[in-house]
Design brief:
Chain lengths: ~260, ~775
Amino acid sequence: MKTIQNLSITVLVILLGFTQGFAQMNGQEIMEAVYNNPSGENIQGQLEMRLINKQGDTRVRELQQFIKDEGEVEKTIMFFLSPADVRNTSFMNWSYNDGRDDDQWIYLPALKRVKRISSDSKSDNFMGSDFTYDDLGDRHPNEDAHKLLGEEVFNGYDCYIVESVPKDKDYMYSKTVTWVIKENFIGIKRDFYDEDGDLLKILQIKKFEKISGYWVILNTQMHNVQKDHRTEMIFSEVKLDQPIPSNKFTERSMTLGR
Amino acid sequence: MKNQINSKKLKLYSWLVILITLAISAWFAWELAGNARMETDLDEYMPKDHPAFVYSDMAEEWFNIKDGILIAIENPKGIYNPGTLNKIKNITKALQDMETIEDADVTSLYTADNIVGSAYGLDVKAFYKRVPETNEKLDELRSLVRANDMVQGRVVSEDETVALVVASIADSVFSMTFYEEILAFADTYEGPENIYVAGVPIVEGTMAYLGPKDMKKMVPIVIGVIILVLYTVLRSIRHTISTLAVVLISTIWAFGLMAVLGISIYAVTIMIPVMLIAIGVADGIHLYSHLRLFLDEHPEATVKEAISDMIRNMWKPVVMTSVTTAVGFVSLLTSEVLPIKYFGFFTAFGVLMAMVLSLVFIPAFGFAFGISRSSKKKKQQIPKQSFTEKFANSFALATIRHKVFVISVTVILLGVSIFGIQKVWINSSFLENFERDSDIVLTDAFVNQHFGGTSSINVILESEHKDAMIRPEVEKLIDEMQTEVESLELVGNSFSISDYIRRMNQVMHADDPTFDVIPESQEMIAQYLLLYEMSGDPENLWKVVDYDYRKANVTIQLKSDNSKDINQAIEILEKYRAPFSELQVEMNYAGSGYKALVFTDLILTGQIKSLLLSIVIIIILLALMFRKVNIGFIGAIPVVLTAAISFGVMGLFNISLSTTTALVSSIAIGIGIDYAVHFIERYKIYALQTRDKSLTIRETMHHSGRAIAFNAFVVIMGFLVLLFSVFPPNRSLGALVSFNMFISFIATVTIMYLVLYKSNIFFKNKK
């Protein structure tokens, strides 16, 4: 009896092992899982952006931000809280799913006027940080060819290591390598390689939490290793359960402050 | 019998001395070949702890200030065609791909940000990514550039025929190979457009390359001429060879010691052989001149007797002249500039080695190879005096007779020189070292004609208070300062944070030119900068202002690197020091142009200081050697006159000093002292021997005056060869050395001799 029990356990273990073996995901599936991680439709909270240059000088900006995903378009509005001389400056970004360039507006209180700004591409840096607009948005997995490089324990998490090579040869990165936590499909670290194949930037997630049923990143740092410049983004008072009205994302609301 | 053994032994010892000398030389030469290291980085020359350099280095780090290599692409039909635009793009990208150049350090129409205003807002984009092909698109690009004065006139010339690609490089990057690579690189893009390469690194590079190359070619010719002239005065191949051997061997030893000690060769190091050739031949000439006179008087003397007499009579002046000269050069150790210290030390070493060799190697050479006797002279000499003797006699008497003339000419010359000295200026310009019609000067002029300027200085503004640089008062003052300094013809352009602010202000007001001013509120400025950061390339901003807006960098572009011109700009900038200080903003300068200015100034003041110091030392040394205070002062006459007149002439004729030519004044010490000591020593000997003043002066003039004249003649002829050099600094070097030799010679045999005669020294006690 006992031997049978032991045997069945052994069989079970083998079976489990097999299932796992069959369930072994490929790079494409892992990155799709990351992409499909639900992120919530209404996000608001405070953002502290710390820019640190080579000499160690630090500049801090505090913003209040609101994000609403309306399916076809993702709308973001941000209000500066500090430094004092740019307080109430606001910035609005509409990002379209169909690949159109983003629409961007800025309101300068000193000028008392909302202005459209336009930038060439998604490779522009966001507010002088080390993040490009593209780094901040979700890149569709089909834009890259993915390859599972292996597995590794990183910062105590079991991770997949996935290499992604853009199908568009003119893309600003020649490849990225992402460490994805197996249990929740959060990308915890990503290395960006420049056009020449040299390491350019390292993105690390320092802190994440489950808020209102969604995984939310609370602290992330981008380090440009070539320029030795860093950007740290710290999110606080994050709320995902409060609906944000659509009229929050208008030129008029930009002038009103938060 | 005993004599024979002695002379056999002597010959053996002599050969031993010669072989040992040659062995040491071979060892040094071998060390030199293996360890010599040329230093081309000009920053290595500058004193690292001098406050001006410390500050400039810091500021260069803050704002990423680097010297730029300028590649100009000229198309006389205009640059707005697909071919030329493609070339601009390709050159830009190829430079960015170079290992040693950072992407952000390359600026051109291809990389420039175009900040434009439109009815609905702000647009920051590249002028072009893909090369425009249609006429319509080319016209559009042209009008975009025309409307943007942050680009028009800076990377595209006003007449639209020339475009500029600027690559900033760190000082450490520059090397001879890099320089050659860049030139070869630019060459591959030639045609149908004309490609020009200019900029400070290129000028420095060409100079570092051309100077030594020209010297390598010229020095053998100089030595050749010296050999010829030496032979005509010494009339003996053996004497010529040994005199020259002393100079060359001492030079090899000096350089060999440098290599052994691991000290790199600097540009001024080239001056060491120049000094040693000019000074070193003196020992040999005086020794052999004495020998010749002795043999003329004692035709039957043996080799041993002749050489013994030569050494007995001449060791003292040879030692005295060499020691005083060496001490004079050692005084250069007070200089703040490391290469000058080395120059002083190793020249002194070389001079002392030349002394040792003259007293050991020359006699050994004589014993080994024999000495030359003038067979003709023996017959001629008995009936009448030789021509030189007659000339020396009448010259000595004439000088005494026309003493008023001699003294007044000296006083006038000295007075005029003192007047001229006040006008002496040192020019840190690299460019003016080249021929006016040389490629490098023409290229520079071409780029200057179309753009803001190939040289620059940086004004660094700094405050203790955060956000100081975005205060409207400060911004306005910066703007005002730029406007005023730009009114100078030689200032082509200037660039600062206020250019950004004005541009943004205009753009945000629907491109209305009336808003091309600094706005009144700090909030507005801060918000503009935030906007710029959000839409443009913030890295460009960190070249003009720092993270906290505590410091700002104003770049002034100059069309000349001439020190007078730079100082003219600085004079205007200085007017703003007080107003800035009222706003609690401190002003400083930085950049390679400014460092060069400070550096050359340092060399000049250091040179004058050490010159004065060495004159004092010489006076004391001479007074001690002759045990007479007066002799100290009399002996210093040729030194002082040579230094004063050579500086005076430069001041009067507006000839600027450069780093190397300033050092030539050291030659005044070396040579002036040689002449004075030999002359005084001979005068003393004859005075004590004959106790007849008239006979003394005639004998001294015949003996010592003759040797001095020979010496001057040999070196002057040798260095005049440098006048045919293709490198202007080497030409002025040749002229200066010759001129110094000539003044030293004339001063010694006229005014110094006259003062010596009138002072009654060496006669007072005896009569």
